[in-house]
Design brief:
There is one protein chain. It contains 13 helices and 7 strands. It has 298 residues and is an alpha/beta fold. The chain folds into 2 domains: 183 residues, Rossmann fold; 108 residues, Orthogonal Bundle (DNA polymerase, domain 1), CATH 1.10.150.170. Strands 3-2-1-4-5-7-6 form a 7-stranded mixed beta sheet, with helices on both faces. Helix 7 packs across helix 10 and helix 8 crosses helix 9. The two termini are 40 Å apart.
Length: 298
């Protein structure tokens, strides 16, 4: 089975979220439409799904996949940080459910033009939306050593960030760093210290690539904007569910929900984040690091 078509944490979501036939759902990261298809089957002709994505290919796939649903499906090519603007344009004042799956599907990781993977040579781009101006190559080749180190430490949480930044700067003096394999090789050399071993289940370049991807796509900034907008868009009793895949995202969601709870806006339905069970991880390895948090507007 193609894992990119399996909605992450679908069992946990359907246990917590029950939509009526006239519900309005916003899928802020519709991807290939897996979650929307799952919930769309319980929404009738008087209900609506609004799906956001910045990836044109994903929207085309989602449109085809959801075409047989009875409900109204509206697809928007924009970042979910602009959810309030677009719902207002559509004349939608309140919604029943907001879902954000912050992960990437395998098709996006394998896309040669996105440059998200170092498993094979790709342009060092990382823009999920080609309308963005700054690429990962721009950052790697133009940031000074301190700025690079700070970025890798802040968004990649790599304690060797200064050493990695130094190696990047030294290598780019000889030639511009243009591909994913070039950068991965440089990071690997930076972390190979004589007499020391770096034990990790992940590739040494993973954290640097994560840091660059977050910076290029302004991922954390956009997540914060979505979370700020959500309370005014949810009707009383409406729910927001966020699936995160690393601690930086999860921490933002956790503290936003706690803050809204202290203000009397949310009831938190997940005291601890819900995680995939062994069967799901076996079925869909992409779900391994997923954490689901859900809140209800009171």
């Amino acid at each position: 089975m193609d894992t990119e078509h399996i909605p992450v944490l679908e069992d946990k979501l359907t246990e917590q979220i029950n939509l009526s036939a006239d519900s309005i759902m916003v899928d802020t990261t519709i991807g290939h439409g897996g979650h929307s298809l799952l919930f769309g089957q319980s929404i009738g002709k008087n209900g609506t799904i609004v799906g956001f994505d910045i990836d044109k290919k994903s929207l085309e796939i989602a449109e085809k996949r959801l075409e047989k649903l009875e409900c109204n499906v509206i697809l928007v090519r924009d970042n979910f940080s602009r959810i309030e603007h677009h719902l207002k344009e559509l004349g939608i004042n309140e919604v029943d459910f907001i879902l954000a799956d912050l992960g990437f599907c395998s098709a996006q990781l394998a896309d040669d033009q996105k440059g998200l993977s170092f498993q094979r040579e790709m342009p060092l781009d990382m823009r999920m939306d080609k309308r963005l101006k700054t690429t990962a190559a721009d950052i790697v080749n133009e940031y000074d050593k301190k700025s690079l180190a700070d970025l890798i430490y802040k968004y990649g949480q790599d304690r060797a960030s200064r050493r990695i930044a130094r190696f990047i700067v030294e290598n780019r003096r000889r030639e511009r760093i243009e591909t994913t394999t070039q950068l991965a090789s440089i990071v690997l050399k930076a972390l190979r210290r004589p007499g020391k071993t770096r034990k990790s289940r992940i590739h040494p370049a993973t954290r640097t690539f994560q840091a660059l991807r977050i910076a290029v796509n302004r991922e954390l900034e956009n997540l914060e904007k979505l979370l700020v907008s959500a309370p005014s868009l949810l009707r009383t009793g409406g729910k927001i569910a966020v699936i995160s895949f690393h601690s930086l995202e999860d921490r933002i969601v956790k503290w936003n929900f706690k803050e809204r709870k202290s203000e009397g806006i949310y009831e938190i339905l997940t005291k601890k984040p819900l995680r995939p069970d062994r069967d799901e991880v076996k079925r869909n390895p992409r779900s391994r690091s997923a954490k689901l948090r859900i809140a209800r507007k009171v």
